[in-house]
Amino acid sequence: MIKQIWNNWKLELILLLGLTLAVGVFSSIPLYSEASLQYGLMSSWESGSSPRNPPGMIRVSNEQWKDYHPVFNPSQWRDQDEAFGEFLALDSMLKEEMPVRFGEELLYFAQVGTIERQWFRPVEEDGWPGRRYADIRYLTGLEDHVTIIEGRWPDPETAYTGDAIEVVIDETARDNLGLFVGRTYLFPLRREPGQVQQFIDVKIVGIYRTDIEAYNKPVWVLNAPFSESFMVSKEVFEELVKRDDLVPYTYEWMWVFDHSTVRVHELPQIVEGLTNLESRMLQLTNNVRFTKTPVNMFNTFISRATVLEQLLLILSLPVLGIVLYYTILVAGLTIRRRRNEIAMLKSRGAGLTQIIVIYALEWGILSVVALAIGPHLGVLISKVMGASAGFLSFVGREPLPVMLNPDAYKYSLIALGLSLVACLFQVIPAARHSIVSYKQDIARGSGTPFWQRYFLDFGLLIVSYYGYRNLETQIASMTAATNTQAQLIVDPMLFLVPVLFLLTAGLLVLRVLPWLIRLLSFVTKRLPDVQWSMTLRQFSRDPGRYSPLMLFIILTVSLGIYGASIARTIDQNYIDSQLYRVGSDVVLTENWVVSSIGGGIDPVTGEAIPDLREIAEPPFYVHKEMPGVIDAARVFKNTIRVGIGNMMMGNGTIMGIDPVDFANVAWYRRDLTDYHLHEYLNRLILYPEAALVDRLFFENFGLQIGDWIVAEINQQKIDFWIAGVVDLWPTVYPREFPLIVGNLDYIQSQYVIEPYNVWLRVEDGAELAPIIKELAEHGVYVTGVNDARTKLIEGRRDPQRMGLFGMLTISFLVSVVITIVGFLLYTFLSLKDRMLQFGVLRAIGLSFGQLIGMLSIEQILSVGVSLGFGTIFGIVVSYVFIPFMQITQDLAGAVPDFLVVVRPGDILQICIVIGVTLLIGIIGLGVVISRMRLHQAIKLGEEV
Asked: Is 692 left (phi over 0), alpha (psi -120 to 50) or beta?
């Protein structure tokens, strides 16, 4: 096997490339999913945390007081020995299993037991001010984080065996409760109804002060200070519970694990471990529960990881199909070159299974190499995906923390398994031939491909049409529901159906290609040069030789255009939706000084004095002078009542603008209005009382240009005449209609000056903090900021969005690599297969230049036809299927309207890549043919 690999190392190396690419692309799915969500996991986990409440904390509480509460336990009393035994079993299990279940390094552990808070009194009540309340506690690690400032620690030998229980207290307890070292106090025992109250003696032997460290680290379950607690050791606490029958209020445990080492792929295992542990806890007692656990958050990220993996898997299917097709073709070429060897083995008694095993072992060695290299390629692919900002567009953001994980190897094995099975299917037809039947098969030549014989292309056409109709049905059945989040949700059918359509279209082109070639041959048969007729005859006689390469190019080009259009469309529509929502680059809300004047009762007349508001407007001109600000505009927006004459028609929205400034700062897209924005604004400039209204209001009430309408703001009416009609207007949604857009100066002249927002258009990369700081120095205080640039950055960091753009880019790049390698492979192998033909052509007088010209026409025809059809199919599929993507973003209809973006620049890029490949192939043809010894190609009945 090693010898066979060595003898055919070129083909084996090309096959290894396909296997490695398949492993790399497939393994990148779990790698990217984990790495992209890792940042979000750490951010969510750390948000709201504090030094005393770190992210890796888990807390468990055993609330035994419920066993002694008549609401929770009607019998009210429970055997104390049974309860204590239950606690010991629970304590042992938690300490043993919690670190194992979580599986990360344990940083802190603490435990606390609390006896229910009770009133207590001193033995001698002289001067005692009244009832005081405290509990008895033990706290692990107490001695390590406090300092005795008065008295001593309890003596372990006499802390419980003496006349009184020795305890220590916090200095805050001393101050709050008026306690003293050396004094003895009476703490009540549990008593049943009708019994005389019994007490235990509690003697304070020391007062401690909590170290600063304990306030800044999670060293204890509860937060210091303990201002109402008598502190004892755990051993004394347990003796109190067992001997004196005190009711333990709660037991609590706390673990703090190193959260920084937790990986997303470990979350299911951790959740399963904690869930199983919780079930076992509840088997011991009903009164135990997790009071702090990351399980809910982990489940959220597990769900997100599942959705992201499904999305990437769907996106990767086309390129995996291309890679799989590539490996099948290379395997087929390998088998075709070794069919004589296989036929000899068959003639000498080798069975079908034996031959398959030989190739399985041979390609299994390549698979092992691919398994060693491929996952590392997957790491690189994942990092490239993490840096993507669009199709073939990358930014220099911090690289994703990609690390190999078990799931990557699982996906790698799946990819290798599919590839090997597909390749081995190529062995079966060849292994059925003996040397005699093999020679007969060669003499008959290649037949019609199986997919043409069984009309598979027409079957796929029916399936594609059904998928398209299914997508249309989904659109029709959608109900109104708006998704305002930046998260992207993609229907798998939006990728599978177009790919199926493109595959079908490519197969149909290959079916009609011989007829097209015959038509072209008829057109060019009168040309004086023999190159055209010979090339077209070669095409028409053996179209199967060119079919795989042409299908490769058609799929690569069309999928590249479709992928680029998806990325451009999603990105552009997201940008447009955010800028429409904000209105400009930045919108500032500022503090206006508002004071009331008047009000109350006139002492002379006894009449009410109107309450008037005095508003101090911040200086506006300073905004335009800020560094980094290109221009600024005042924009007033408020809710109004809209009327015609004296009849009010309902609530609406008014927007007051300065037309000149607004034109310089507002975001605008040409399809929002019938005419350009400037034409509408010019009407407002010419006529101060002019207004723009929305089309729905205009048509529903039968209004005409020039009609007068009324806007009522806080019972103050303002008259406008209609100067134009708009469909949409920045920041205003249809639910806010009717809309009136007028001159701000006119509105202020008819109504009191109201606070407005300031819209800013800023330079690229301008920071907002210095602008706000300098505005404050000029007496303008910003109270709110709406920055569209920040929203766009946040949206582009969404793992699904990055994964979509990244996988589309990677898919195209891998397809291009596969196509280039396949093109060069087919080109140069065809030269070897046709060496005898070239020798004959040279022998009958065909010049070297004519031979190169004939081969160039072949390549130009095969690549050109494929490139042309691929471009057409890619554009058609983009306009047909991409509009369905709006159902994943806004079921009620996108605002502004969903726009399909097919950029000629992307098509040009793709064509340039294929064109350069063609040029390299033609140059390579010339070099190879010039080195061929064509004069030695003709021998008696043999090919060299």
From this structure: beta
DSSP reduced 3-state for 764: coil
pTM over 0.85: no
| CA 306/CA 301 separation, integer angstroms | 8
pLDDT at 657: 92
The pLDDT value given to residue 482: 40
Question: Beta-carbon neighbour count of residue 507 at 10 Å?
Answer: 20
In degrees, rounded to 5, the angle at the alpha carbon of residue 385 between the alpha carbons of residues 382 and 390 is 175
Spatial separation of the C-alpha atoms in residues 60 and 55, rounded to whole Å: 15
Under 8 Å between Cβ of 384 and 33? no
Question: What's the confidence (pLDDT) of residue 389?
Answer: 73
**Long-range Cβ pairs for the range 284-290 (8 Å, 24+):** 284/86, 284/89, 284/90, 284/93, 285/62, 285/86, 285/90, 287/62, 287/63, 287/64, 287/66, 287/67, 288/60, 288/61, 288/62, 288/63, 288/90, 289/60, 289/61, 289/63, 290/58, 290/59, 290/60
- Report the pLDDT value the prediction gives residue 819, as an integer from 0 to 100: 79
Distance CA 880, CA 497 (A): 11
Give the chain's residues under pLDDT 50: 69-74, 479-488, 888-893, 940-944
According to the model, what pLDDT value does residue 604 have? 54
Q: Tell me which residue has tokens 């204590």.
A: 84
Please check whether residue 723 is in contact with residue 690, taking contact to mean a CB–CB distance below 8 angstroms: yes
* d(C-alpha 846, C-alpha 852), whole Å: 10
Cα dist. 121→151, 206, 618, 682 in Å?
21, 18, 64, 86
One-letter amino acid at 763 equals E
Residue ranges of domains in the chain: 1-29+314-445, 57-78+111-259, 448-477+491-581+822-944, 592-780
559-605 pLDDT, tens digit each:
888 888 888 888 888 888 889 999 999 999 988 865 555 555 555 55
As a residue count, the chain comes to: 944
- pLDDT, residue 189, reads 78
Tell how strand 629-644 and strand 757-762 pair up.
antiparallel
Q: Which of 867, 873, 857, 848 is nearest to 926 (CA)?
A: 848
Cβ contacts of 595-601, under 8 Å, gap ≥ 24 = none
Contact predicate 60/251, CB 8 Å: no
Tokens matching residue 331 = 């395997």
CB 20, CB 370: distance < 8 Å: yes
User: Alpha-carbon distance 608 to 601, whole Å?
Assistant: 5
DSSP code of residue 903: -
pLDDT of residue 666: 92
Residue 493 CA to residue 483 CA, distance in Å, equals 20
Terminus-to-terminus CA distance in the chain, angstroms?
25
CA 27, CA 314: separation in Å to the nearest integer? 14
Rounded CA-CA distance 254/108 in Å is 8
Looking at residue 568, its pLDDT comes to: 86
β-pairing, 586-590 vs 132-139, is: unpaired
Distance CA(642)–CA(639), nearest Å, equals: 10
Nearest to 118 by CA among 58, 167, 188: 188
Q: Which residue has the tokens 């060695």?
A: 365
Instruction: Give 260-296 as a DSSP string.
Output: GG--GGGHHHHHHHHHHHHHHHHHH-TTEEEEE-SHH
Q: Which two tokens stand for residue 576?
A: 């447009």
- Element housing 240 (H / E): helix 234-243
* Closest to 299 (Cα-Cα) out of 337, 270, 278, 328: 270
Which phi and psi angles does 103 have, rounded to 5°?
80, 10
What are the two backbone dihedrals, phi and then psi, of residue 39, each rounded to the nearest 5 degrees?
A: -60, -45
Question: What pLDDT score was predicted for residue 117?
Answer: 80
Helices (H), 797-883: 799-833, 835-843, 848-881
pLDDT of residue 485: 42
